[in-house]
Amino acid sequence: MYRALDKECGEEIIILDEKWHQGAIDELRLKGRSKILHCPECQKPLTVKAGDQKRWHFAHQDLEDCPLRNESAMILQARSLLYKWLQSKFSDKVTIEKKIEECLFPRPVDCYVQLDNGAKIVYWILEAGIRNRSELLWSISEANIQVHWVFLHRMLKEDEKHTNEFYFSPTERDFFNRSDYMKAYNGPSLHYLNIETSELKTFRGLYLVHSPQKYKCKKVLNGPLDEILISPKTGEFVYLGEYEKLQEYRKSQTLRQLKMETSIKLKKDVSIVGNKIRFSGGMNKKLSRITQKTVPPRPEVPNILNEPVPCEICGKLTTAWSSFNCKTRTCECKECLEKRS
């Protein structure tokens, strides 16, 4: 484990923090030898393991009654990787091995983040299936906590004959990640951490191809954990270019909604009765304004008998014309027509 309680001052100590790696580890060793450091779960003394071969951690002198006695080395390694990565994103807002009383987690959560707005984000690492999942999910929902499930890479079972097809256990299926990116890819996600390469692999847009456990995905994303981005509001794992994809999706949905609203409004304004199209009062006013702006007034043609106009050839005022130009309000008189012909 990486977390201990200092009984002298009541301070919680995380041995992975940088300050203990800057020459202060001897002070921590002395606290351990003096039985000042205790396990937050069973309250028994802890010793400091800070050698050159393994990652620094705390160890129980007696594990018999501690609920953390069955933690595997793989879970511990994955937890340390995730904690260091979260520290680079959330700084001092992240802690490790935290007990959440209101949720039915079988052990303290691997990593925990509490934002300034009070939002709570949990990262839970799994190396095998767990029982009582429905009760756990219910308690998480009641506590209003955002949980990101991280499976160890060795749990992933790919179809050997068909690429991009996978077999998911009941635990994996129950813990599908349904974040905002589910909308952009039209399906949930799963995250797998490879502790040997420190890489994260994510399957986006999962969909069932053979009930109950065979799935395909629309996108496979993979990269070193240090290069993975994070959503500052939800704590979701985000790969390069994914946020832009989500923004494009949101814009397209907004445009689609506007088109639907316009279509519905038009249907309300227009009705068909028999062979005629009728508009509502509001639509008639709009059409009237449009007509007034776009249709020019029809020029008046002078009365031949009462309004003489000038001939565009000879300039004589006359009512005896053969043709009339509405734009110039001139004519070609019959005399000029006879001379021309």
- Summed up, the helix count is 8
> Uncertain spans, ≥5 residues at pLDDT below 50?
none
Distance between the termini: 114 Å
> Which sequence of strands runs across the widest sheet?
6-7-8-9-12-13-16
What's the rounded overall pLDDT mean? 85
Taking Cα atoms only, what radius of gyration do you get, to the nearest Å? 39 Å
Query: Based on helices, strands and strand pairing, what is the structural class?
Result: alpha+beta
**Shape category:** elongated
Q: What fraction of residues sit in β-strands? A: 25-35%
Q: Major β-sheet, in short?
A: 7 strands, mixed
Number of strands: 24
Q: How many structural domains?
A: 4
Percentage of residues assigned to helices: 25-40%
Explained architecture:
This protein is an alpha+beta fold. The chain has 4 domains: 1-70, no CATH class; 71-251, no CATH class; 264-295, no CATH class; 309-340, no CATH class. It has helices at 25-33, 73-90, 133-143, 170-174, 181-185, 242-269, 281-294, 334-340, and strands at residues 3-6, 12-14, 37-38, 46-49, 57-60, 94-98, 109-114, 120-126, 146-152, 157-158, 165-167, 190-194, 199-204, 207-210, 214-216, 219-224, 229-230, 237-238, 270-273, 276-279, 309-310, 317-318, 321-325, 330-333. The strands form 8 sheets. A 7-stranded mixed sheet has the order 6-7-8-9-12-13-16. A hairpin with a 6-residue loop joins strand 10 (157-158) and strand 11 (165-167).
List keywords for this structure.
single chain, 341 residues, 4 domains, 7-stranded mixed β-sheet, 4-stranded antiparallel β-sheet, 8 helices, 28% strand
